[in-house]
Design brief:
Blueprint lengths: L4 H30 L17 H4 L3 H4 L6 H23 L1
Length: 92
Amino acid sequence: MIPTWPCALFILWRRADALQRVYSLLAHHLKSITNQNEHQIRLSKDDNPPAHKFLVDDYGDDNGHLNNSDDELLLKHVKQATQALRHRTNDE
């Protein structure tokens, strides 16, 4: 007759192994839930200028060397093209 204690020991070992897997999964899940703030972005505090300084429209300050003659020529060309198109449409 075969002793039953090795069989009982094997069953206990298998149950302990299954419980250990469940425990490690739960522990990992619990750790990931509790450490959610770990992956948040942390902004540094420094003495840089505020954001509104960068958002102010200073086109005139940066481009004072440009003249408006190109705009006037473009406007004149657009007016001539529009008049020509209207004249052409009226003739048809």
